[in-house]
Structures are given as C-alpha cells and as structure tokens.
Design brief:
It is a single chain. The chain is built from six helices and no strands. By secondary structure, the protein is an all-alpha fold. Helix 1 crosses helix 4, helix 3 packs parallel to helix 6 and helix 4 crosses helix 6.
C-alpha cells in the first residue's frame, strides 16, 4: 500500500508563512530597538493586525514541523537511496523567492491600508532589514524541517526495529 505524502511544496510553503513574519519581526526589532519608537512606527504604517500575523506564523511553523515529522515517520522504511526529504537545500531559491515576494507585498499592503503610498516602505530601515533577513530565515527553516523529518524517520525506524542507513 502506498502511503500518501504531502507534495514537496507544501512543507516549504507552510514554512514561508512563518519565515516572512519572523524576518519582519526581527528586522523591525533591530531597526527600531526602542519599543516606543517601534510601536509608533508600526502603528503609523498599518501593522495593527500584527497579533493575527504572529498567530498565522505560529500555525504555519507548527504545521510545517508536524508534516515534516509525519512524513519522516511514514517514510521510515523507505530505502535511503530512494528517499528525498520534503524540504532541503534545493528548495532554498523557491522559498526565498516566495518569502521575499510575500514580504514586499505585505509591506506595500500595510502602507496602502494605512493610507500611505506603498512605495513609502522603501524609506523604512525595517523594510530593508526584513527583506535581507529573508535569506537566513529561509535557510534556517529548511535546516530545521529537514532535521525534524530525519529525526522522526530515525525514531520511527528504531521503534519498528530497523534503522535506515544514514546519508
């Protein structure tokens, strides 16, 4: 019987949701280290929905990790030479592109909803830091997903009494 497994793009797509919000949060935190200045800037640029974005990011991260763990456990008996993880370094360009485009659209939309020109985001140091941070965040996300999937695969194989060969 063939076990259904999520398509390879599902796990990185879920991670992209979390990645955009994580890089956004860190970028604005570094650009505006004082909570008063950061709060004022965020309030004036359409970020009042941020608790909802943080909740979506947590849900996306949890779902990506759960799917990765489930995929690893279901694939615990697959031969090592025929096994491809759901998230690996080949996905980095795709994930980086998704996160970067989503981040730019998010920033433009926030400004538009606040009655500002979407191009005003280009004047914010938080925007530029958030955009640059998409790369390390995407890389870390893929590393974490692969690690979770591999650990679940090894755990399930050990629980079943057979260990797959390590790559």
């Amino acid at each position: 019987m063939r076990v259904p497994v999520a398509p390879r793009t599902v796990v990185p797509a879920l991670a992209a949701v979390a990645g955009v919000v994580a890089a956004h949060t860190v970028g604005y935190g570094v650009a505006f280290p004082g909570s008063g200045a950061r709060g004022q800037h965020l309030a004036s640029t359409g970020h009042s929905y941020w608790p909802l974005a943080a909740a979506a990011a947590l849900a996306g991260a949890a779902a990506a990790l759960a799917v990765s763990a489930g995929r690893g456990a279901l694939r615990s008996t697959a031969p090592a030479h025929g096994y491809a993880p759901a998230a690996d370094r080949r996905d980095l360009p795709w994930l980086l592109a998704c996160q970067s485009v989503a981040f730019v659209l998010l920033e433009a939309g926030e400004r538009a909803l606040a009655g500002l020109s979407p191009a005003s985001a280009l004047q914010s140091p938080g925007f530029w830091l958030g955009l640059v941070l998409q790369l390390p965040v995407a890389w870390l996300a893929l590393r974490a997903l692969r690690a979770v999937e591999g650990a679940a695969r090894r755990w399930a194989a050990a629980a079943a009494g057979h260990l797959p060969r390590r790559r």
